[in-house]
Design goal:
14% strand, 10 strands, 2 domains
């Protein structure tokens, strides 16, 4: 949800477009205004929890605007099912099921979700780059020892974290209170803290992190996760799960062998050189915000032809 809000605000700011997200916003829009739109952008979010008026507006916008786009930054996210049901009531079942994703284009962080043959206006946009906020003048010494892991616990990631973090070194986990018990089932000795805020500033206190992902991402490229850009922004040493090396290669990032870990023993050895690793990984720093802006405006130009 936080990522969706961040992306929606960014798109609205970049395009100089109004942001519609409340029932009051929707009430000010008419079908005639939607039909006059050159571009309607719907950002992925848990729309099932949105008010009825907002769900209806989303569905109608996708059909009435001259060009419509669904923004997706997660391989598990799909266009809202509510949109399809509204389309069926408004235009009939046949038209609503005429094509996958119901006829609108995608701007996705997951290249494998693009459909160039059927929807040539789809575009790859790596929205995760939006979390890159590099800090200048950082020191890599006097940081908290061990490994920090932050975020939610996705299904299938438990085994990977147990394999890599069940060692003789300090482990800190930052997560929401409702997720602590799940983590404790396989990391009982970790130190648990609340969500870090502001995130990048808080991360600069920690020495290293583990980069891992879901099983599905072992073979399907989903772009580098938010956690990569956040850790790189904070100058942390990023220890890469060996099963994730394909993602880094696809992203065009080279790695040294000691950065790649397969067990908690590998992690312990890498931690001994964490400060040097963090300094060496400065090579990964790019103008990611500029790249994102270029990708977005290229995608806009494609659908505006």
């Amino acid at each position: 949800m936080v990522a969706s809000v961040r992306i929606a605000n960014y798109v609205a700011q970049q395009l100089g477009a109004p942001l519609v997200h409340t029932e009051e916003d929707v009430a000010r829009c008419t079908d005639e205004q939607l039909q006059a739109l050159d571009l309607f952008v719907l950002v992925n979010s848990p729309t099932g929890f949105a008010p009825e008026a907002v769900r209806r507006f989303s569905a109608e916008g996708l059909w009435l605007a001259r060009n419509a786009v669904f923004v997706n930054n997660d391989y598990k996210m799909r266009p809202p099912s509510q949109s399809k049901s509204h389309q069926q009531r408004r235009w009939g079942k046949h038209r609503a099921e005429a094509g996958d994703y119901y006829g609108y284009s995608l701007w996705s962080t997951v290249p494998g979700q693009l459909r160039p043959a059927r929807y040539p206006l789809d575009s790859y946009v790596n929205w995760n780059q939006l979390t890159y906020e590099p800090r200048d003048g950082m020191t890599h010494v006097d940081r908290e020892p061990g490994v920090l892991y932050w975020g939610a616990l996705r299904k299938g990631r438990e085994g990977r974290l147990r394999q890599l973090l069940h060692g003789q070194f300090p482990v800190t986990v930052s997560t929401a209170p409702q997720s602590v018990q799940k983590f404790k089932e396989f990391l009982p000795n970790a130190n648990y803290v609340g969500q870090l805020n502001p995130l990048i500033a808080a991360l600069t206190r920690y020495r290293a992190t583990i980069y891992t992902h879901d099983d599905w991402s072992d073979t399907a490229y989903c772009s580098l996760a938010n956690r990569f850009y956040e850790a790189l922004s904070a100058g942390m040493a990023i220890l890469v799960d060996a099963r994730c090396t394909g993602t880094f290669k696809r992203a065009g990032l080279s790695m040294e062998p000691e950065w790649i870990v397969r067990s908690h023993d590998d992690v312990a050895r890498a931690l001994a050189n964490a400060e040097r690793i963090a300094v060496d990984q400065v090579r990964w720093r790019e103008h990611y915000q500029t790249l994102l802006k270029e990708q977005l405006h290229a995608a806009v130009a494609k659908v505006s032809v």
